[in-house]
Amino acid sequence: MKLVRFTLPLIAASVLAACSSAPGLDGQGAAVEDRSGAASSGVDSSRVTTVTADGVGGAGIAALKDPKNILSKRSVLFDYDSYVIKDQYRPLVEAHAKFLVANPTMKMLIQGNTDERGSREYNLALGQKRADAVKKALGLLGVAEGQLESVSLGEEKPSCNDATEACWAANRRGDMLYSGEF
């Protein structure tokens, strides 16, 4: 079990690195197949602005607030007791990475969150692993280390307070905040 927990994040990071392209080669990203089996990825790619090396659909920083733009989505959700980024969030992480690479003065804070189950210490540690997983994925996609910071909030900042599985799932996340938002 320990070997699986150690190798799965490495495999996920390797897949993210292998699927990325060097910035500026063709200016366009390839479609990513969703093999998660989930009905909805949480990101509707048919109605979002594309991200290029020059910025975000020509809109630059304004794209961060545009609800039709993928960059307005800021949370990566995780499975229970896991800090492996799901395939369905790969386009979201890649879009934020391209934006940060194109805007080297921007900084991002990644906040790792957990649901209420588990001890305070365990949840703080798991939240940090989730934040670090997003940070590492962004780093593998070319974002400078100095642009990224990760912190754990554990169970202290829930997005939902009900004691249901749907609510717990919404609380298992990594939130990406840009300069001026934290």
Report a brief summary of the structure:
This protein is of the alpha+beta class and 182 residues long. The chain contains four helices and six strands.
Number of domains: 1
Strand segment tally? 6
Mean pLDDT: 80
**Fraction of residues in helix:** 25-40%
* CATH architecture assignment: 2-Layer Sandwich
Rg over C-alpha atoms, rounded to the nearest angstrom: 16 Å
Could you tell me the CATH topology label.
Answer: 60s Ribosomal Protein L30, Chain: A
Element pattern in H and E: HEEEHEHEHE
Secondary structural class: alpha+beta
* CATH class categorisation: Alpha Beta
Write a concise keyword list for the protein shown above.
globular, 14% strand, alpha+beta, 182 residues, two-stranded antiparallel sheet, four-stranded mixed β-sheet, 4 helices, 60s Ribosomal Protein L30, Chain: A
Task: Report on the architecture of this protein.
It contains four helices and six strands, in the order αβββαβαβαβ. The chain is of the alpha+beta class. The strands form two sheets. The protein has a four-stranded mixed β-sheet. A two-stranded antiparallel sheet has the order 1-2. α3 (120-140) links the parallel β4 and β5 (148-154). The longest helix is centred in the C-terminal third of the chain and has 21 residues, at 120-140. The termini are far apart.
Write the layout of secondary structure elements.
Blueprint: H1 2-19, E1 51-52, E2 55-56, E3 75-77, H2 90-102, E4 108-113, H3 120-140, E5 148-154, H4 165-171, E6 173-178
Parallel strand pairs: 4-5
Antiparallel strand pairs: 1-2, 3-6, 4-6
Helix pairs in contact: 1-3, 2-3
